[in-house]
Prior knowledge:
FAD/NAD(P)-binding domain, Immunoglobulin-like, 419 residues, globular, seven-stranded mixed sheet, alpha/beta, 8 helices, 3 domains, single chain, five-stranded parallel sheet
Amino acid sequence: MQRITCDVLVIGAGPAGLAASIAAKQEGAEKVLIVERDESIGGILQQCIHPGFGLSYFKEELTGPEYYARFADKTLELGVEVLLNTMVLDITDEDVVCISAKDGLSIIKAGSIVLAMGCRERTRHQLTIPGSRPSGVFTAGTAQRLMNRENAMIGRRVVILGSGDIGMIMARRMTLEGAKVIAVVELNDYLAGLTRNKVQCLDDFEIPLLMKHTITDIKGRKRIESVTVCEVDANNIPIPETAVEYPCDTLLLSVGLIPENELTHKAEIDISPITNGPVVNQYMQTSREDVFACGNVVHVNDLVDNVSLESERAGQYAAKYALGKLKKREDVIQAQPGRNVRYICPQQIVNAEDGGEINLYFRVAGPEEKVRILVKTGDKVIVQKKALRVNPGEMEHMRFDAREITSPDLTVEVMKEAI
């Protein structure tokens, strides 16, 4: 067993962990250590070979590997240490327990910890889709890894359940590889992913999108042979008489992502029942003062550019905490979702009287057109903006100075514009 000490420990070497480690180093932390369970750094971006990354952060269009490579190069240039093939088993009150095939058990004592483990996909088991259990049923992310990193063609006739971004991107990817994507099936009457992905990945390739539909049966013995698709009513209950059977050899599930929160639970950190990630303040600090969190482990983002910005803040303040430069939090203000707002991140604002830029990210509960988005402290509107449309699949963002908060109540709401 080896014992390691560091100023800032970052768990996860995906885009969140890389951005956080760079910011921690630049803030003055002498020893920053990343622990990563994979054999290489980069996280999910290693398999995202499509373009569309970096438009906001770098002001140019990059592929996933090109995007994370810029952060990886900077990480190594600054002297951040990385332990690969190493799994974090537990976060105790005193230290972090890890294990690897090479070094065995390791005990790490850190001045502060940044959780950057990302998220995982919902599976068929979590959806309880009835039917047989043949091969050919994949989550969209697994299919992406098999095709883009392992050069394996997974099927020829494909149905995709869910309009999440990975699912729509894989619809295009499968089509470009010669497969026939029969349909993308979405339970809701709105997209789960970005509109740009619908246009570029479905519309441009004439792939049907069936809204208010779901899969009610899977047939096949060794390999999937068909799926049954039904329309759903206003309560999302399948309508049996609308059932249509689609012959296929592959089913991809793109039905949502869940933050990797096992370690968060073990550390007894407060978790939001809406996001399933830790509750954080504007410093990305959790309910345990020495633990910070960022990226998809906090809430699922639709743009990696936002992940990078959020993670830089986590790394910066984790370093400040480790160096004894972060003021103890006082006067906690809860950010509350108002009309048509599902959740807000960060959920708390501390030390508002000290000022500083607050970046509130949130998702609406349902799609609407011609709205006004308001951030209010008590009855006072701090900041507002108009939007032609809002959709749960696309993150909204509002920015203001903490000193503008004049009440213990902070609310974000989406109001219909008077016509």
